[in-house]
TrEMBL record:
Highest classification ranks of the organism: Bacteria, Pseudomonadati, Bacteroidota, Flavobacteriia, Flavobacteriales
Entry's Gene Ontology BP terms: proteolysis
Protein name in the entry: Metalloprotease
Assigned keywords, A-Z: Hydrolase, Metalloprotease, Protease
GO function terms (MF aspect): metallopeptidase activity
Provenance organism: Elizabethkingia argenteiflava
């Protein structure tokens, strides 16, 4: 009896949503309610709310017109997993988590194969990419990595990073992969001590790499993305601030990719080589160069310690 009533109530609320064509606004309200619990909450501007109200269920220009913004994934476990992952990412850097929304598209489900980080302090994560990534490993590490990558962009927005700017998005994207590799290793992050345990994650990063090196949207080639995850993972042995991570990442990444080209060296005037970190990374430099050049076989890469 109780069950029937709940079902009817649910049906009622779906009908209401469909009739007023304003699920975005409803979702915004619930997201605002969630966000208001955190000090780092983002209050949507009037124009954002107004726009969503008058334009049917429309998320924003990053998503298709039929996409709908939701505050939850399909199951409470999935939602909880992602919220908890985001909380751990933020806590690792002693920050409050940004707002997290999920995007669902009943008409074109594959259009939500994407995740977006916004300069306004929020991350929207597509249903399709979540489901596909979840199917790739029992511990859901691929979603943990994608979210850590998107969170890496939040760190970049907040700290005006990366310190190395290029004419494409590559330096931002590779550093976000590095932040993800760092997070996967940290005990208070995803806590994977063995590199072999994060295979599903770096394989995914490599798969979505590209060779459009002149395109503004270039994210790095598959070998470069693998190198970035590996370098981040190696740096995960140390405790760094956000700015220290950026300097260390670029100091070593630049020597892997660009040799001694001064235009891609970290700009921070405060940068100092840390002898302990230097010893560790230099010991892996040959290996990093081999990954970046694409010469390292998958089997060798998988078995790195
Ligand atoms: Zn990215």
């Amino acid at each position: 009896m109780k069950k029937t009533m709940i079902s009817l109530m649910l049906l009622g609320s779906i009908a209401t949503t469909l009739t007023i064509s304003c699920s975005r606004d409803e979702d915004n309200k619930s997201l605002l309610a969630t966000a208001s619990n955190s000090e780092n909450s983002l209050v949507l501007s009037n124009s954002e709310v107004l726009c969503s109200y008058i334009s049917k269920p429309y998320v924003d220009w990053s998503w298709s017109y039929s996409a709908i913004l939701k505050s939850e994934l399909e199951t409470p476990e999935d939602t909880e997993f992602m919220k908890n992952e985001l909380k751990k990412n933020a806590a690792l850097w002693k920050l409050n988590p940004p707002k997290l929304g999920f995007v669902y598209d009943p008409e074109k489900p594959s259009s939500t194969y994407n995740a977006t980080s916004y300069t306004t302090g929020k991350i929207y994560y597509g249903y399709a990419i979540y489901e596909d990534a979840k199917s790739k490993s029992p511990d859901n590490i691929v979603n943990a990595m994608i979210l850590a990558h998107e969170y890496g962009h939040q760190l970049q927005f907040k700290y005006n990073l990366p310190s190395v700017k290029e004419s494409t998005y590559r330096s931002s994207e590779l550093e976000a992969d590095g932040f993800a590799g760092y997070y996967l290793r940290k005990p208070e992050g995803f806590n994977k001590k063995e590199f072999s345990e994060i295979a599903a994650a770096y394989n995914f990063a490599a798969e979505i790499g590209d060779y459009a090196e002149k395109d503004r949207n270039h994210h790095g080639t598959p070998p470069q993305r693998k190198t970035a995850v590996r370098l981040g993972f190696l740096l995960g042995e140390f405790s760094l601030s956000v700015n220290e991570f950026d300097s260390q990442f670029y100091y070593y990444y630049s020597s892997v990719l660009e040799g001694d080209d001064p235009s891609v060296q970290p700009r921070s005037s405060r940068f100092r080589v840390n002898p302990e970190i230097d010893q560790k990374i230099q010991a892996h430099m040959g290996e990093l160069k081999k990954i970046a050049s694409g010469e390292m076989a998958d089997s060798e890469f998988r078995n790195l310690d």
